[in-house]
Design a protein that fits this description.
- By secondary structure, the protein is α+β, with helices and mostly antiparallel strands.
- It has 5 domains: 113 residues, no CATH class; 179 residues, Roll (SH3 type barrels), CATH 2.30.30; 51 residues, no CATH class; 80 residues, SH3 type barrels, CATH 2.30.30; 68 residues, no CATH class.
- It has 14 helices and 22 strands.
- α1 runs parallel beside α5.
- The longest helix has 38 residues.
- The chain is extended, with a radius of gyration of 40 Å.
- InterPro entries: SNase_OB-fold_sf (IPR035437), Tudor (IPR002999), Znf_CCCH (IPR000571).
- It comes from Bombyx mandarina (Wild silk moth).
Length: 658
């Protein structure tokens, strides 16, 4: 016969349920953090498209692939959670002391969000969609005739077996515990809201490629290092303000409060720094791993050194920028001894005020050239000490001419070498896939003669062919057209017309093509401006004449490489020092007609006033020396305004950043 204390049984069941709920909430927090990471990463896909046009396609496809993977994971999770049935409320009915045998439950596939988030590939299984939760038959509780739910030792008052005083004490303890937990929940909610509001720092500004910035090396870790491009006094004043604030407003934090931190303030014994909480080291020492955002260091601190970062210190972005040396390649990545020597060499320049030239800003780590105060580059020093191999030319970036980024047709033909094309390296290897080694079978000692043998005589088993005869046979070389007249003649020759290949894909805006001019049925170089799919028409601009025209898609052909060496002959120009007195369309049409009469098909003198990315401002004079702008003003077509010459002789190249 058993005696059941209802209050004690309730407390045990309640504690067990709370333990399970805490485990479930902890897993939910992990899942929510993983979903937030996916969301943040997905929002950053657009920023990855700010890259070189050559890498745009690869980055776009990679971002779309990752976005599809995230979509599959979230869809599987939503389907799984949508099929969970409401378990209903539990019935707290007294049960016998003996534990009944439970019916076997069907095994269902695991629906764990954390496992789904760790999958490297999109989930293609339909497991979550095919799960059918069959309703369990309700078990009716039947009481046997000879079985009692609670047995008492006597027929007297139940206070002998279950004392009422103990029940009242336990109920009071439960009420006190509930009130205490509600107070803790309110405090934790307030703290979590404050931490969520205070853990957001603004993003760092992007440093432009080929620009030079002043910086100070703050930290070195292997081949990576961290640089502050702002004034170090600003960072120093921020640390002093944080130290003064947290000295007066220090609050000790427990493990639960530390785990929910994102950005924090951390004390190293001297002053406070802004940090990013990484994880809690579970070795019983209550140690947290923190990344200091203003110096680039990753260090471990006791949780007593951590404080929540308040809003007044979240106005400025992280000052430290992760960098690596551009134009060099470490000799051995896995040689820890060599990496330690490289790190020791770079540590000598910590705190040095230097200049950095940005070579690559397409990733989280900037590729830079570090120019020291003595005009030497840290990149050259690393190569000279044989810690790395030079990838590019060892010339200092300060002495190098800036790279010219322009389409092939604008490249100066004096710097072109037709033999540098990949099709001229080894055509046999390009077609057959192997390198021709026939010359290895030719005897290098044979100099010619009637005997057709070398000094080895019959012992020589190699072929006896004259490799370098004295009389070199004559041959011809076809050079690209050097003038517009020869270019048009070559593009419209019968031999060239039959070789034109139609485009396999729809031309993209900006693509160089060969377009037919309907008025004379000749082919000219053109650039695609826009296109319409319904009528298959393409708007092109003939780059050697400036004419804009709509042509059919079948009047577009692939432009061969030999026709791109000559620079574009037409340049867009605007008259300097003129403005239109009216916005009336008829007045604009009249001014355009008069300008055509004064300039169309006539030899003029042009004085360059200023240059822009795609046009130049000029003064035009006819053969008699009269200004075109003044003639337009005399006819009341335009108004004259003052202007000045923009001196850009020192500007070598202008690049439009994407």
């Amino acid at each position: 016969m058993s005696y059941v204390d209802l209050a004690t049984l309730t407390m045990h069941r309640r504690n067990e349920l709370e333990g399970r709920i805490n485990m479930f909430l902890e897993k939910c927090d992990h899942a929510i953090n993983d979903i937030k990471k996916m969301k943040t990463k997905a929002q950053g896909f657009v920023l990855q498209l700010n890259c070189d046009p050559a890498e745009l396609k690869e980055r776009f496809l990679k971002s779309m692939k990752l976005l599809d993977e995230f979509t599959y994971l979230i869809t599987d999770f939503n389907l799984a959670t949508g099929q969970i049935e409401d378990l209903g409320s539990s019935e707290y009915t007294p049960v016998p002391d003996t534990t009944p045998k439970l019916l076997p439950t069907p095994q269902l596939p695991t629906l764990n969000l954390l496992d789904a988030l760790s999958e490297p590939t999109p989930s293609t299984s339909q497991a979550s969609m095919k799960v059918t939760h069959t309703k369990k038959p309700k078990r009716l509780k039947s009481i046997k005739d000879d079985q009692t739910l609670i047995s008492f030792s006597s027929s007297s008052c139940s206070s002998e077996s279950v004392p009422l005083v103990k029940t009242e004490v336990v109920s009071k303890e439960v009420q006190c515990e509930i009130v205490y937990e509600l107070e803790n929940l309110e405090i934790e909610d307030n703290q979590s809201q404050v931490s969520q509001e205070s853990c957001k720092l603004p993003a760092q500004s992007m440093l432009e490629v080929d620009n030079t910035y002043s910086g100070t090396i703050m930290h070195v870790d292997g081949s990576s290092f961290w640089i502050i491009t702002e004034d170090t006094d600003i960072v120093y004043r921020l640390m002093l303000e944080m130290t003064e604030y947290y000295t007066k407003n220090y609050r000790k934090m427990n493990l639960k409060e530390v785990k929910i931190l994102a950005y924090c303030a951390v004390y190293d014994g001297d002053c406070y720094y802004r940090g990013l909480f990484l994880n809690l080291i579970e070795d019983g020492t209550n140690t947290a791993e923190v990344y200091i955002v203003d110096t680039g260091e990753t260090r471990c601190f006791h949780i007593d050194s951590l404080q929540p970062l308040v809003l007044q210190f979240c106005d400025s972005p992280p000052y430290a920028r992760c960098c690596h040396l551009a134009g060099v390649d470490p000799i051995k990545y896995n040689d820890m001894h060599l990496v330690e020597k490289l790190e020791e060499c770079m540590r000598n320049y910590i705190g040095t005020l230097c200049r950095i030239e940005i070579d690559d800003n397409s990733s989280e780590s900037l590729g830079v050239y570090v120019i020291l105060p003595d005009n030497q580059t840290l990149n050259q020093i690393i190569v000279q000490q044989e810690f790395a191999n030079a990838i590019d030319s060892p010339v200092s970036p300060a002495k190098q001419a800036p790279a010219v980024h322009c389409p092939p047709e604008l490249v100066n033909d004096s710097s072109l070498d037709i033999t540098h094309g990949p099709e001229y390296e080894d055509p046999v290897e390009a077609v057959t896939g192997y390198h021709n080694r026939d010359e290895a079978d030719i005897c290098k000692h044979y100099k010619g003669g009637p005997s057709a043998t070398c000094f080895k005589g019959a012992k020589c088993k190699k072929k006896h062919i004259v490799k370098h005869p004295e009389q070199i046979p004559e041959f011809g070389v076809v050079l690209p057209p050097a003038t517009l007249e020869s270019l048009v003649r070559d593009m419209n020759s019968p031999a060239a017309r039959i070789t034109y290949k139609p485009l396999k894909l729809t031309p993209a805006p900006g693509e160089m093509v060969a377009a037919l001019y309907p008025l004379d049925d000749n082919w000219y170089r053109a650039r695609v401006l826009s296109l319409t799919r319904p009528d298959q028409s393409v708007e092109v601009m003939y780059v050697d004449y400036g004419t804009v025209l709509w042509v059919k898609e079948d009047q577009i052909r692939h432009l061969e490489a030999r026709y791109t060496f000559l620079p574009m002959q037409a340049v867009r120009c605007v008259l300097a020092g003129v403005t239109c007195p009216s916005h009336d369309s008829q007045h604009w049409a009249a001014a355009k007609r008069v300008l055509g009469e004064l300039t169309q098909d006539k030899l003029l003198d042009a004085h360059i006033i200023s240059r822009d990315y795609d046009e130049v401002a000029v003064e035009l004079f006819n053969s008699d020396g009269y200004s075109i702008a003044e003639q337009l003003a005399a006819r009341d077509m335009v108004d004259l305004v003052e202007y000045s010459v923009v001196d850009d002789t020192k500007t070598q190249c202008k690049v439009v950043a994407p």
